[in-house]
Design brief:
The chain is an alpha/beta fold. Helices cover 21% and strands 10% of the residues. It is built from 8 helices and 10 strands. The strands form 3 sheets. The chain has a 6-stranded mixed sheet with strand order 2-3-5-6-9-10. Strand 7 and strand 8 form a beta hairpin. The longest helix is centred in the C-terminal third of the chain and has 19 residues. It starts with a strand and ends with a strand.
Length: 364
Protein backbone atom coordinates (compact mmCIF):
# COMPACT_ATOMS: atom_id res chain seq x y z
CA UNK A 1 0.00 0.00 0.00
CA UNK A 2 3.03 2.22 0.11
CA UNK A 3 2.44 4.05 -3.11
CA UNK A 4 4.07 7.41 -3.70
CA UNK A 5 3.09 10.27 -5.93
CA UNK A 6 6.72 10.84 -6.74
CA UNK A 7 6.09 12.54 -10.03
CA UNK A 8 3.23 14.77 -9.00
CA UNK A 9 4.60 18.29 -9.02
CA UNK A 10 2.74 21.38 -7.99
CA UNK A 11 4.56 24.65 -8.60
CA UNK A 12 3.21 27.81 -7.15
CA UNK A 13 4.17 31.28 -6.08
CA UNK A 14 3.32 32.65 -2.66
CA UNK A 15 3.26 36.30 -1.74
CA UNK A 16 4.31 37.49 1.67
CA UNK A 17 1.23 38.28 3.71
CA UNK A 18 0.59 38.89 7.38
CA UNK A 19 2.12 35.74 8.79
CA UNK A 20 2.57 36.81 12.36
CA UNK A 21 3.45 40.18 13.78
CA UNK A 22 3.76 42.58 16.62
CA UNK A 23 0.07 43.29 17.18
CA UNK A 24 -1.88 40.12 17.63
CA UNK A 25 -5.16 41.90 17.08
CA UNK A 26 -4.02 42.68 13.53
CA UNK A 27 -2.87 39.17 12.72
CA UNK A 28 -4.38 38.05 9.46
CA UNK A 29 -6.49 34.96 10.15
CA UNK A 30 -6.48 31.99 7.85
CA UNK A 31 -8.99 32.66 5.13
CA UNK A 32 -12.34 31.19 6.07
CA UNK A 33 -12.58 29.14 2.93
CA UNK A 34 -12.83 25.37 3.11
CA UNK A 35 -10.14 24.00 0.84
CA UNK A 36 -11.02 20.47 1.86
CA UNK A 37 -9.65 17.78 -0.38
CA UNK A 38 -7.06 19.92 -2.11
CA UNK A 39 -4.24 17.82 -0.76
CA UNK A 40 -1.71 19.43 -3.00
CA UNK A 41 -2.57 22.56 -1.02
CA UNK A 42 0.90 24.01 -1.00
CA UNK A 43 -0.71 27.36 -1.49
CA UNK A 44 -3.75 26.59 0.62
CA UNK A 45 -3.12 29.56 2.88
CA UNK A 46 -3.61 31.98 -0.02
CA UNK A 47 -5.27 35.24 0.90
CA UNK A 48 -8.81 35.33 -0.55
CA UNK A 49 -8.03 38.67 -2.17
CA UNK A 50 -5.17 37.26 -4.18
CA UNK A 51 -5.52 36.44 -7.86
CA UNK A 52 -7.36 33.24 -8.71
CA UNK A 53 -6.28 33.06 -12.32
CA UNK A 54 -4.44 30.16 -13.90
CA UNK A 55 -1.24 31.32 -12.23
CA UNK A 56 -2.51 29.86 -8.94
CA UNK A 57 -2.90 33.30 -7.42
CA UNK A 58 0.80 33.84 -7.68
CA UNK A 59 0.64 37.59 -7.97
CA UNK A 60 4.13 37.32 -9.42
CA UNK A 61 6.03 40.56 -9.15
CA UNK A 62 7.29 41.94 -12.48
CA UNK A 63 10.80 42.13 -11.02
CA UNK A 64 10.75 38.43 -10.13
CA UNK A 65 13.88 36.65 -11.22
CA UNK A 66 13.37 34.22 -14.11
CA UNK A 67 16.94 33.83 -15.26
CA UNK A 68 17.48 30.52 -13.54
CA UNK A 69 19.58 31.99 -10.75
CA UNK A 70 16.80 31.46 -8.21
CA UNK A 71 17.18 34.94 -6.77
CA UNK A 72 13.48 35.57 -6.52
CA UNK A 73 12.35 36.92 -3.19
CA UNK A 74 15.70 36.25 -1.51
CA UNK A 75 16.81 38.77 1.08
CA UNK A 76 20.11 40.23 -0.15
CA UNK A 77 21.61 39.63 3.28
CA UNK A 78 20.75 35.93 3.24
CA UNK A 79 23.23 33.30 2.19
CA UNK A 80 23.13 32.24 -1.44
CA UNK A 81 26.31 30.22 -1.42
CA UNK A 82 25.69 26.90 -2.99
CA UNK A 83 22.45 26.33 -1.15
CA UNK A 84 20.41 26.35 -4.31
CA UNK A 85 19.70 30.03 -3.76
CA UNK A 86 17.17 29.15 -1.08
CA UNK A 87 18.42 31.76 1.32
CA UNK A 88 19.25 29.11 3.89
CA UNK A 89 21.02 30.58 6.89
CA UNK A 90 24.55 29.15 7.01
CA UNK A 91 24.06 28.49 10.73
CA UNK A 92 20.78 26.71 10.17
CA UNK A 93 20.57 23.17 11.50
CA UNK A 94 20.73 20.51 8.80
CA UNK A 95 22.01 17.53 10.75
CA UNK A 96 18.74 16.59 12.36
CA UNK A 97 19.93 17.28 15.88
CA UNK A 98 18.28 20.69 16.01
CA UNK A 99 21.37 21.86 17.88
CA UNK A 100 21.39 25.32 16.33
CA UNK A 101 18.93 26.49 18.93
CA UNK A 102 16.85 29.51 18.02
CA UNK A 103 17.80 32.47 20.21
CA UNK A 104 15.10 33.17 22.81
CA UNK A 105 12.72 35.69 21.32
CA UNK A 106 9.22 36.90 21.96
CA UNK A 107 7.30 35.99 18.77
CA UNK A 108 5.09 39.04 19.24
CA UNK A 109 8.13 41.30 18.85
CA UNK A 110 8.81 40.11 15.29
CA UNK A 111 7.73 42.65 12.70
CA UNK A 112 4.41 41.94 10.99
CA UNK A 113 4.96 40.05 7.73
CA UNK A 114 8.73 39.68 8.14
CA UNK A 115 8.55 35.93 8.67
CA UNK A 116 7.21 35.47 5.17
CA UNK A 117 9.56 37.77 3.29
CA UNK A 118 11.52 34.83 1.90
CA UNK A 119 8.30 33.43 0.43
CA UNK A 120 7.71 36.47 -1.75
CA UNK A 121 8.15 35.34 -5.35
CA UNK A 122 9.34 31.90 -4.25
CA UNK A 123 8.52 28.57 -5.85
CA UNK A 124 7.79 25.34 -4.00
CA UNK A 125 6.54 21.82 -4.58
CA UNK A 126 4.50 19.47 -2.42
CA UNK A 127 5.48 15.86 -1.84
CA UNK A 128 2.41 13.67 -1.49
CA UNK A 129 2.86 10.12 -0.24
CA UNK A 130 -0.34 8.11 0.28
CA UNK A 131 -1.91 5.69 2.74
CA UNK A 132 -0.67 7.07 6.04
CA UNK A 133 -2.84 5.04 8.41
CA UNK A 134 -2.15 1.72 10.13
CA UNK A 135 1.57 1.64 9.41
CA UNK A 136 1.28 2.52 5.72
CA UNK A 137 3.58 5.54 6.06
CA UNK A 138 6.28 3.81 8.09
CA UNK A 139 9.68 3.63 6.44
CA UNK A 140 8.81 5.82 3.46
CA UNK A 141 11.83 7.71 2.15
CA UNK A 142 11.68 11.11 0.49
CA UNK A 143 15.00 10.61 -1.28
CA UNK A 144 13.63 9.30 -4.61
CA UNK A 145 11.49 12.43 -4.83
CA UNK A 146 14.40 14.69 -3.92
CA UNK A 147 16.52 13.06 -6.59
CA UNK A 148 13.93 14.25 -9.12
CA UNK A 149 14.17 17.79 -7.72
CA UNK A 150 17.98 17.99 -7.84
CA UNK A 151 18.15 19.65 -11.25
CA UNK A 152 15.53 22.32 -10.60
CA UNK A 153 17.24 25.69 -10.71
CA UNK A 154 14.45 27.94 -9.41
CA UNK A 155 12.97 25.83 -6.63
CA UNK A 156 13.00 27.41 -3.16
CA UNK A 157 11.09 25.14 -0.79
CA UNK A 158 9.49 21.72 -0.46
CA UNK A 159 6.26 21.06 1.39
CA UNK A 160 5.63 17.85 3.31
CA UNK A 161 2.61 16.77 5.33
CA UNK A 162 2.50 16.39 9.09
CA UNK A 163 -1.06 15.13 8.93
CA UNK A 164 -3.31 14.06 6.10
CA UNK A 165 -6.21 16.04 4.65
CA UNK A 166 -9.97 16.06 4.94
CA UNK A 167 -11.51 13.10 6.82
CA UNK A 168 -8.07 11.54 7.11
CA UNK A 169 -6.71 14.46 9.15
CA UNK A 170 -6.29 12.40 12.38
CA UNK A 171 -3.51 10.47 10.61
CA UNK A 172 0.03 11.85 11.06
CA UNK A 173 3.39 11.19 9.44
CA UNK A 174 5.46 11.56 12.62
CA UNK A 175 5.49 9.41 15.77
CA UNK A 176 3.68 10.66 18.86
CA UNK A 177 3.23 8.72 22.07
CA UNK A 178 -0.14 10.20 22.99
CA UNK A 179 -1.68 9.55 19.59
CA UNK A 180 -0.26 6.03 19.55
CA UNK A 181 -1.89 5.37 22.92
CA UNK A 182 -5.27 5.36 21.17
CA UNK A 183 -4.19 2.22 19.31
CA UNK A 184 -5.23 -0.54 21.71
CA UNK A 185 -3.71 -3.95 22.28
CA UNK A 186 -7.16 -5.48 22.64
CA UNK A 187 -7.22 -8.17 19.98
CA UNK A 188 -9.21 -5.89 17.68
CA UNK A 189 -6.83 -3.09 16.71
CA UNK A 190 -3.97 -5.56 16.07
CA UNK A 191 -3.68 -8.96 14.46
CA UNK A 192 -2.19 -12.04 16.12
CA UNK A 193 1.36 -10.91 15.34
CA UNK A 194 0.73 -7.42 16.73
CA UNK A 195 0.50 -5.67 13.37
CA UNK A 196 -2.07 -2.90 13.00
CA UNK A 197 -5.56 -3.56 11.71
CA UNK A 198 -7.17 -0.27 12.72
CA UNK A 199 -6.82 2.88 14.87
CA UNK A 200 -3.07 3.42 14.36
CA UNK A 201 -2.76 7.04 13.19
CA UNK A 202 1.00 7.60 13.64
CA UNK A 203 4.20 5.72 12.77
CA UNK A 204 5.07 3.54 15.75
CA UNK A 205 7.33 5.02 18.42
CA UNK A 206 9.16 1.84 19.28
CA UNK A 207 10.25 1.63 22.93
CA UNK A 208 7.58 3.70 24.65
CA UNK A 209 9.79 4.11 27.71
CA UNK A 210 12.27 6.08 25.60
CA UNK A 211 12.09 9.85 25.24
CA UNK A 212 13.02 9.59 21.56
CA UNK A 213 11.32 7.48 18.87
CA UNK A 214 13.36 4.68 17.37
CA UNK A 215 12.70 6.17 13.94
CA UNK A 216 11.43 9.63 13.03
CA UNK A 217 10.94 9.76 9.31
CA UNK A 218 9.49 13.27 9.24
CA UNK A 219 12.71 14.48 10.82
CA UNK A 220 14.64 12.53 8.20
CA UNK A 221 12.58 14.17 5.46
CA UNK A 222 13.22 17.65 6.82
CA UNK A 223 16.95 17.04 7.25
CA UNK A 224 17.20 15.68 3.71
CA UNK A 225 15.39 18.69 2.27
CA UNK A 226 17.64 21.08 4.18
CA UNK A 227 20.73 19.20 3.05
CA UNK A 228 19.79 20.00 -0.56
CA UNK A 229 19.58 23.71 0.27
CA UNK A 230 15.79 24.01 0.18
CA UNK A 231 13.58 25.53 2.83
CA UNK A 232 10.80 23.47 4.38
CA UNK A 233 7.07 24.00 4.65
CA UNK A 234 4.69 21.83 6.68
CA UNK A 235 1.14 21.16 5.53
CA UNK A 236 -1.52 20.45 8.14
CA UNK A 237 -5.28 20.13 8.01
CA UNK A 238 -6.93 22.01 10.88
CA UNK A 239 -9.46 19.22 11.33
CA UNK A 240 -6.79 17.20 13.19
CA UNK A 241 -8.65 15.01 15.74
CA UNK A 242 -12.11 16.60 15.47
CA UNK A 243 -13.27 15.71 11.98
CA UNK A 244 -16.90 14.60 11.95
CA UNK A 245 -16.36 11.65 9.62
CA UNK A 246 -13.83 8.94 10.43
CA UNK A 247 -13.13 6.15 7.92
CA UNK A 248 -13.41 2.54 9.03
CA UNK A 249 -9.64 2.17 9.20
CA UNK A 250 -9.52 4.26 12.39
CA UNK A 251 -13.09 4.26 13.72
CA UNK A 252 -12.40 4.90 17.41
CA UNK A 253 -9.59 7.45 17.46
CA UNK A 254 -11.77 10.55 17.64
CA UNK A 255 -13.78 9.18 20.58
CA UNK A 256 -10.68 8.05 22.44
CA UNK A 257 -9.03 11.44 21.89
CA UNK A 258 -12.01 13.31 23.30
CA UNK A 259 -12.21 10.98 26.28
CA UNK A 260 -8.56 11.67 27.04
CA UNK A 261 -9.05 15.44 26.91
CA UNK A 262 -12.15 15.12 29.13
CA UNK A 263 -10.49 12.99 31.81
CA UNK A 264 -6.74 13.63 31.84
CA UNK A 265 -5.80 15.76 34.84
CA UNK A 266 -3.17 17.82 33.00
CA UNK A 267 -5.45 18.41 30.02
CA UNK A 268 -8.33 19.50 32.22
CA UNK A 269 -6.12 21.88 34.18
CA UNK A 270 -4.91 23.43 30.94
CA UNK A 271 -8.39 23.80 29.45
CA UNK A 272 -9.86 25.30 32.61
CA UNK A 273 -7.02 27.80 33.07
CA UNK A 274 -8.56 30.11 30.43
CA UNK A 275 -12.29 30.54 29.89
CA UNK A 276 -11.84 31.06 26.14
CA UNK A 277 -10.68 27.46 25.76
CA UNK A 278 -14.13 26.12 26.62
CA UNK A 279 -16.39 29.04 25.63
CA UNK A 280 -16.41 31.40 22.65
CA UNK A 281 -16.52 35.18 22.81
CA UNK A 282 -19.87 36.95 23.09
CA UNK A 283 -19.53 40.40 21.51
CA UNK A 284 -22.64 41.69 23.28
CA UNK A 285 -21.37 40.93 26.78
CA UNK A 286 -17.66 41.14 26.07
CA UNK A 287 -17.21 37.82 27.90
CA UNK A 288 -16.47 34.21 27.01
CA UNK A 289 -19.91 32.80 27.66
CA UNK A 290 -20.91 31.04 24.42
CA UNK A 291 -20.72 27.31 25.20
CA UNK A 292 -22.56 26.17 22.08
CA UNK A 293 -19.31 25.09 20.36
CA UNK A 294 -18.95 21.72 22.06
CA UNK A 295 -15.71 20.71 20.30
CA UNK A 296 -13.85 23.97 20.95
CA UNK A 297 -11.91 22.55 23.91
CA UNK A 298 -10.63 19.62 21.83
CA UNK A 299 -9.05 22.01 19.36
CA UNK A 300 -7.10 23.75 22.13
CA UNK A 301 -6.20 20.37 23.62
CA UNK A 302 -4.66 19.27 20.31
CA UNK A 303 -2.70 22.49 19.87
CA UNK A 304 -1.18 22.23 23.34
CA UNK A 305 -0.46 18.52 23.65
CA UNK A 306 0.17 17.48 20.05
CA UNK A 307 0.99 20.34 17.68
CA UNK A 308 3.22 22.23 20.13
CA UNK A 309 5.05 19.00 20.93
CA UNK A 310 5.78 18.44 17.23
CA UNK A 311 6.83 22.07 16.71
CA UNK A 312 9.29 21.99 19.60
CA UNK A 313 10.69 18.64 18.44
CA UNK A 314 11.54 19.91 14.95
CA UNK A 315 12.39 23.51 15.83
CA UNK A 316 14.09 25.42 13.03
CA UNK A 317 14.02 22.43 10.72
CA UNK A 318 10.61 23.91 9.79
CA UNK A 319 10.59 27.26 7.99
CA UNK A 320 6.87 27.65 7.34
CA UNK A 321 3.48 26.14 8.16
CA UNK A 322 0.32 26.05 6.03
CA UNK A 323 -3.01 25.13 7.67
CA UNK A 324 -5.75 23.93 5.35
CA UNK A 325 -9.52 23.95 5.95
CA UNK A 326 -9.75 26.98 8.26
CA UNK A 327 -13.50 26.54 8.38
CA UNK A 328 -12.79 24.06 11.16
CA UNK A 329 -11.58 26.99 13.28
CA UNK A 330 -14.53 29.29 12.70
CA UNK A 331 -16.74 26.26 13.21
CA UNK A 332 -15.36 26.01 16.75
CA UNK A 333 -16.35 29.54 17.69
CA UNK A 334 -13.68 31.91 16.34
CA UNK A 335 -14.59 34.83 14.08
CA UNK A 336 -12.07 35.26 11.23
CA UNK A 337 -13.45 38.58 10.03
CA UNK A 338 -13.92 41.06 12.86
CA UNK A 339 -10.26 41.63 13.72
CA UNK A 340 -10.77 41.15 17.47
CA UNK A 341 -8.14 39.08 19.24
CA UNK A 342 -10.75 38.14 21.82
CA UNK A 343 -12.71 36.48 19.04
CA UNK A 344 -9.72 34.73 17.43
CA UNK A 345 -8.22 32.74 20.27
CA UNK A 346 -7.92 29.48 18.32
CA UNK A 347 -6.05 31.28 15.53
CA UNK A 348 -3.79 32.75 18.20
CA UNK A 349 -3.20 29.32 19.74
CA UNK A 350 -2.16 27.86 16.36
CA UNK A 351 0.46 30.60 16.03
CA UNK A 352 1.69 30.21 19.61
CA UNK A 353 2.03 26.45 19.24
CA UNK A 354 4.14 26.50 16.07
CA UNK A 355 6.22 29.45 17.21
CA UNK A 356 7.14 27.56 20.38
CA UNK A 357 9.41 25.57 18.07
CA UNK A 358 10.61 28.29 15.71
CA UNK A 359 9.42 31.85 16.37
CA UNK A 360 10.60 32.91 12.91
CA UNK A 361 8.49 30.36 11.01
CA UNK A 362 5.96 31.79 8.56
CA UNK A 363 2.35 30.83 9.20
CA UNK A 364 -0.67 30.80 6.87
Amino acid sequence: MKHLKLCMLFAFVILATGCGGSDKSETQPITDEDTTGVDSGAGSGTDPEESTDDNNGSGTEPEEDTDGNNESGIDPEESTDGNNGSGTDPEEDTDGNNDSEVDPVDPVSIELGSRAEWLSGSWGVAWLPEYFENGGIEGISIQPFLDQMADFKTLDFIQVKLNDGYIYSPVHTAPHKLLESFWYDDGIDRDESGEPLQNLVVPRWGDLSSDEPESDQLKEWLVSIKAMGFKTQIYMNTGNMVRDTIPGTFPDVQTRWMEWCDTNTEAQAFLNSETYRTAAYDAETGEYTDTSFTERAYMFCYLEFVLKDYAVRYGDLIDAWVFDNPGMISGKGDNPDNGLLEDQRIYEAFAESVHAGNPYAALA
